[in-house]
Each structure stands twice: as C-alpha cells, then as structure tokens.
Amino acid sequence: MIHSIRFELKSDKKAKKKLIYALISYNNRSIMYGENTSKPLKYSTGLKIEPEYWNKKKQEAKNTYIQNHSRLFNIELNGFKKQVEDVFYELEKEGINMPPYIAVRQKLNELRKGVKTVKSDSLIDFIDDMVKFEKSKTINPLGNSTIEKYEILLDQLKLYEKKIKLPLTFDRLNRVIYNGFFEFINKEYIKETGDGYAANTLNGKQKKLNKILKSAKNQGYNVNFDFMDKSLKYSADKVNHVYINFDELNKMIDMDKDVLKKQYEIARDFFFIMTLCGLRYSGLKILFNNTVKKGKLKSGKTFYYVEHASKKTGIDTAVPILAPVLKIYRENNDKFPIPPVSQTINNNIKKVALLAKINDEMVLKIKRNNTVPTKTSQKWEHVSCHTARRSFISNFAQYIPQSVVSKITHPNRRAGMFDVYNKISAVENVKLFFKYIYDVEEFKWLVDY
User: Least C-beta-crowded within 10 Å: which of 91, 193, 229, 325?
Assistant: First the structure.
C-alpha cells in the first residue's frame, strides 16, 4: 500500500508559532473520505514552529532552528512519520488494504498516546487521551495550568455524564446536552460556594470545550456543530474604574475579628496582600516561594521587599512589603500562607466589603445585543482579586511616577523605548518606591514597621 504524508502549518494569524498538521493519504486516494475525493486525513502532530523556520520544500525545520532552538524537532517529526508507517504496516498485517479514516486515526492514537482508543467515540475518553498525550510531550507541551484546566473540565464532564445517565459520545451531543452541561456546573458551584461562576469563567470553559470538539472534528470524529448556538455567551456586568481607596481599605483593616468568619478573614488578608504588593492572584506565588528581605534607604529608613527571578521570562522582579503585609507575614511565623482558589477569595471578599459598608452606588454598563443599557448596584458587589492590583495602581500613581509603579505591577510587559534605556534593577526600583512613600504624609501608616 503506497501512502504519503505532507505537512502543513495551521493558518492562525494570531499565533506566533503555527501548529503542524499531517495530511495523510494512500494510493493517491483519501483515507478520510474514500476513493472519490482527494481530501486526506488531517491529523495534528502536536508540534509547533514559527513559519520563518519551516522549510516547506524539504518538509522539516530549517538548520537555523535546529541549531538555535531544538535539536530534537526534526527527530520528533521523523518519529511521527515512522509511526504512520507502523500504522499502515499493522493494518496490512490485519488484511485491511483500504483502511477507513477511523482505523488509521485509532491506530495512530494507540501509538502516540499509549492507550487503546475506544471505538465508542466517547468525548470523555478523547479528552483523557489528549491530556495524557500533552503530559508526555517533550516539545511545545501545554503549560501545567492549561493542562489543569482541561483536567477540571474533564472531571466536570464525568460528573455530568453520571447526572444525565448517558454516555457523552460525539454523535449524542446536541443543543440540550451542550447547554445543559454549563447550567449543571454552575449549579454545582453554587452548592459548593454559595455563588455561581463568573461570566468570564463560564465563557473560558465554553471556549475550551469548543476547541476540543474542533480538534475531534479535525481527527475525523463525527461532531455535529449545527446545534451549537454561536450567540451563546455568558454576559458579565462591567463597572468602569472600580478600585478600593485607602479609606475603604482601612475600613476593612479595622473590622472587628469577632464580626468576621475565618474564611472571610483569610480572604481579607489576601486582598490586602494583593492590593499593597500590586500583585494579581497568580503572582502570589512570588511571595510564598521566596523570603522577605530587609533593606535601608540612604536616609537610613528601613524597607522590606521580596525579590523573584522569573523562570519563564528570565526577568527579575521585586515587590514592596508594606507594614500591613509584613504584619500578616510575622503572624504566620515569617512565611506567607498558601491562598485558597481565586473564586473562593472573590466570593468571600465581597462579603467582607459588604460588612465594611463599602456600598457606594455604581453605574454598570452592560453590552448586550449591540446595546449598552445601564443599571445601578453597590460597590461591594464588584470587589474581586482583580480589584486589588487596580487599587494599587490607582492609589499610588497619584504620588509615584508611572515608570516606578509599572515596574512593580507589569514587570513582564513588553518594554517601550523608555524602559529599554531604563536599566535600574528591580530592587533599586523598590527603593525608589519607598523613597516616595516616606515623603507622603498620608502613607505613614504603610511604613509603620
């Protein structure tokens, strides 16, 4: 049986690195659609490359890429070709001379993912195989946090399958089951936390599931996209410029501990930390993976900070540790506590803000169906983890130069011309930050160590 493999880069304008697809056919006929069409089986190799490093004629990475980036790339590409050859060899041994696309895909999945492909077209098995394959990749693997999100989605689909008492196969997916899944996980989350998912979270889960279904379609599974409502999008109410000022922050600091439940106190402490360090939720790992250091300004005044070298970008960062944050650190035996998940903090910090009477009236703008209606609500309803970093910038930018503040809050952002020539270190930047803090009377409480 004569077969051929041709590689093509995925046409994705947004992505810098393009996914490489293998187009597999045999005897000049298509595996996927039979002898009356020329369309080949389209199968993802899992490898990605920048177009400028791809040699289309030779069907491999250029030497410059191999020398400067990865010596294993073409080896992995040739390994894929060998796996395709092994598939056709196995099928010929089994007496299948004109294999349908499903047989080729299943054999490839068995070889590449190390698991037997289930012939039931199970959505759950497909995602499970995909996750195992991504974990085993040595080139262009998905990040741990992305894999974790797919694993969470997989667990939720398993619960939903148990709930509806039907196997979630591709041919069974319809509008009722698809939309019902998102309603189900939102209700389950309300049971767990007392509040539903944020709209952005649900939209993120929907995008991930749609991406999985498109991948399955590309690999030949019988996925019907007609049922999917393109207009289905969970709406988030947007409030412009919501931040917590220092008067409101002090209301939360001065709250009687007897009024707060333990989980509210934990959420409040982490909100303080993010607000006074200029960190997003994901940046909290900078704190609990490092120790607090002490420094002195030329004036002899003391300051505290945490220094961190990013493994991903190689950029050094440093965040200030102000007095209220240092107090939390000292009370926890000179270490920062591990935070609960962000959604738990988001839910509980709203309760704290409500108890602290942060109830100014806010005007919301809601974009729906090309209209922008407005409604009013109270400020505490919109306090979340993201409010913290916005509050840091909004409060300090009035007194401290933007270049100093942004080096703390956005150290990894692509530098402009000024930043290219600004070579002060992250620690020197924190020193500058404290110099300005000590000069402002309203900030004395922040450096009352």
Answer: 229
Two tokens, residue 11: 């046409």
Report phi then psi at 297, rounded to 5: -80, 170
With H, G, I as helix, E, B as strand and everything else as coil, classify residue 337.
coil
Which of 46, 51, 49, 71 has its CA nearest to residue 141? 46
The C-alpha atoms of residue 30 and residue 25 are separated, in whole angstroms, by 5
Q: H/E element holding 293?
A: strand 293-296
Q: Where are the domains of the chain?
A: 1-117, 124-235, 246-447
Coil, strand, or helix at residue 255?
A: coil
Q: Which helix (H) or strand (E) holds 46?
A: strand 41-49
Query: If you compute the radius of gyration of the chain from its CA atoms, what whole number of angstroms results?
Result: 27
For the chain, the first-to-last Cα distance in angstroms comes to 78
DSSP bridge pairs for 88: none
Alpha helix stretches (DSSP H) within 194-322? 199-218, 246-253, 262-277, 285-288
Label the pairing between strands 3-9 and 18-26. antiparallel
- pLDDT tens digits along 340-354: 888 788 888 999 999
Task: Report which secondary-structure segment, H or E, holds 178.
Answer: helix 175-193
Structure tokens given for 37 = 């069409």
Which tens digit of pLDDT belongs to each residue from 121-161? 788 988 888 888 777 766 667 777 788 888 989 999 999 99
Contacts of 396 (CB under 8 A, 6+ apart): 278, 405, 433
* Position 252, amino acid: M
Pairing of strands 302-309, 54-55: unpaired
Reduce the DSSP state of residue 356 to 3 states and report it.
Answer: coil
